[in-house]
Write a structure and sequence with these properties.
The complex is a heterodimer. In chain A, about 0% of the residues lie in helices and about 50% in strands. Chain A has strands at about 5, 10-15, 20-25, 30-35, 45-50, 55, 65-70, 75-80, 90-95, 105, 110-115. Chain A is globular and about 45 Å long. Chain A starts with a strand and ends with a strand. Chain B is an all-beta fold. In chain B, about 0% of the residues lie in helices and about 55% in strands. Chain B has strands at about 5, 10-15, 20-25, 30-40, 45-50, 55-60, 60-65, 70-75, 85-90, 100, 105-110. In chain B, the strands form two sheets. In chain B, strands 2, 4, 5, 9, 10 and 11 form a six-stranded mixed beta sheet that branches. In chain B, strands 1-3-8-7-6 form a five-stranded antiparallel beta sheet, with no helix packed on it. The chains are: A mainly beta, B mainly beta. Chains A and B meet through strand 4, strand 5 and strand 10 of A and strand 4, strand 5 and strand 10 of B.
């Protein structure tokens, strides 16, 4: 049973370019969460999605950042016009859609470097 | 909103000794408390968790305790091994399926 998959693992973008980060949840999981981790810091929540719905985007910056989880395909975190401060590790987590399950399982992350 | 503090920020122990990491949270509505281990260049790995209706949970060399009155919970690792060296994060969540609030992490070094 494959775990959470993220790609690319490393992404380099110049200031002003767009970054697209992809996340495929574990099989049978329909809830996806995105977190950002700055160097030497903990993880900060960004957005929580279910298929075709954004449930909670309270941690998303108001501009340049967007996320989607379409009916088919992976979840996408999109960062437009990247700036150096966007350099970080971005992690996706997934959980099953059951009342009794609280656990979130993380992918290996995408390390974004903005030059 | 929820705020999670974690101590110590770094911890060095001799192989075979025990390690204890402590976290406090602020939101009394939080009811789920997972612990993650993160190795260099990898994603966080869930190692143990506890729900608010339980005071203690154990899995081999790892245990977690929860004191809801004091709003703190702790991770205990016994008989530490070099492969336990990593950054450990605690987190709190106030309802199922919602975001976790993470502590800042503890870098554990197990010295051979």
């Amino acid at each position: 049973n494959a775990g959470v998959m993220q790609n690319p693992r490393h992404l380099v973008r110049r200031r002003g370019q767009e970054a697209r980060l992809r996340c495929s949840p574990m099989k049978g999981h329909s809830h996806v969460y995105w977190y950002r981790q700055l160097p030497e810091e903990g993880l900060k929540f960004m957005v929580y999605l279910q298929k075709e719905n954004i449930i909670d985007e309270s941690g998303m910056p108001k501009e340049r950042f967007s996320a989607e989880f379409p009916k088919e395909g992976p979840s996408i975190l999109r960062i437009q016009q990247v700036v150096r401060g966007d350099s970080a590790a971005y992690f996706c987590a997934s959980s099953p859609a059951t009342r009794s399950s609280y656990e979130q399982y993380f992918g290996p992350g995408t390390r974004l470097t903005v030059t | 909103g929820e705020n999670v503090e974690q101590h110590p920020s770094t911890l060095s122990v001799q192989e075979g000794d025990s390690a204890v990491i402590k976290c406090t949270y602020s939101d009394s509505a939080s009811n789920y408390f997972p612990w993650y281990k993160q190795e260099l260049g990898k994603g966080p790995q869930l190692i143990i968790d506890i729900r608010s209706n339980v005071g203690e949970k154990k899995d081999q060399r790892i245990a977690v305790t929860l004191n809801k009155t004091a709003k703190h919970f702790s991770l205990h690792i016994t008989e530490t091994q070099p492969e336990d060296s990593a950054v450990y994060f605690c987190a709190a969540s106030s309802y199922r399926g919602q975001n976790f609030v993470f502590g800042p992490g503890t870098r554990l070094s197990v010295l051979p």
